[in-house]
Predict the 3D structure of the following.
Amino acid sequence: MENEHISSAFDTDLEAVQSQIMKMGGLVENAIQLGMKSLETRDAELARQVRVADGAIDALEEAINEGAARIIALRAPTAVDLRLVLCVIKISGNLERIGDYAKNMAKRTEVLSRAAPVGNGMGTLRRMTRAVEVMLKDALDAYIHRDVALAADVIARDVDVDQMYNALFRELLTFMMEDPRNITACLHLHFISKNTERMGDHVTSIAEQVIYLATGKQPDEARPKADTTTSAGAM
Amino acid sequence: MENEHISSAFDTDLEAVQSQIMKMGGLVENAIQLGMKSLETRDAELARQVRVADGAIDALEEAINEGAARIIALRAPTAVDLRLVLCVIKISGNLERIGDYAKNMAKRTEVLSRAAPVGNGMGTLRRMTRAVEVMLKDALDAYIHRDVALAADVIARDVDVDQMYNALFRELLTFMMEDPRNITACLHLHFISKNTERMGDHVTSIAEQVIYLATGKQPDEARPKADTTTSAGAM
């Protein structure tokens, strides 16, 4: 934590809210990991825990929003300070959405447990989910350390997640065509993978905000990584 | 505009900020349309206008943020009212990002003007951009009217944008393999299409917030539309 120049009441107030962001980030990373695990191991009890734990994530978002509103009301921050407070609000909103997608993943454990496994679809989904989890961890590290290079790398990695989503989508189509009994399970897996892809979008938003906070500029020139890998047939 | 029960000072203050959101939305829709047009017609002067107009979008976001901060400071809203103010802040943030992507599109007009046209890549990009533009218009209409069904439809349409992005990506790969002289132009087009896909993500976020505002619940059960079209070979 960068707490070497906590001088004003504003900084102290903000520090408290920032630590809630980090706590929330940890819970969300956990939710992604356990949500995926519950799905893969068909563990209904674990799925239930993930669903229950989402309440704590939502409560933290509320607390962060109220904390941020209190700072605005008490300290009347302007310019850069206001931008920082608003950023905290936006990041907590992104984290809350990611947590919801993880909860939704866990919710599908029960219905997917009743279906036969479809090819290696679950393995692809696990790799995709793991990639998003690491992106989230890195985006939050980039936020703490205002690490622009790391944030730009996170944004670039979102392209990989998209490509994993596309590959899985084609894989699922094949399974459905092979055996119509796979269709229900495949539709659920497609739904989950789309939500995982959306988690990646929210992580990208967090990383974009880190760049904005650190540089005052939006990362609209950040080049997607696939630009350099397309000719290698990355799709 | 739903202004039938403007009763409190809070509502009046908020109404002013909301109308700035609608104004910002109009400017952003315009930027998408003209950014795409400048690219397609290789119109450097139009591209310049889009870049300049982005300043007004950024200024509106600043004004909305300051207006929202003023409301929080003066009215100390809690619960539902606070949620509404924070939502306005988040939506203006989404609009600002979309505007940046449109500006970035215009910025590439000059470099793309120097290259030979690549197949029908531009046509696919135009359709994709047009789809996002209509999604944005609908998301803002859903916001004004708190129209949950329309917002859910916008979220579902994001899947179509993803699939257009994938189709274009494959198309560009083919052009690059056919003739290496196409590579530079294709990389630019790929970059633009990825940004257009990201515009779609931000529009989706706006639609999700409309559902949250109207129902108090996150739309984590909203099913991607492709679930019903996959077997028809939509990819």
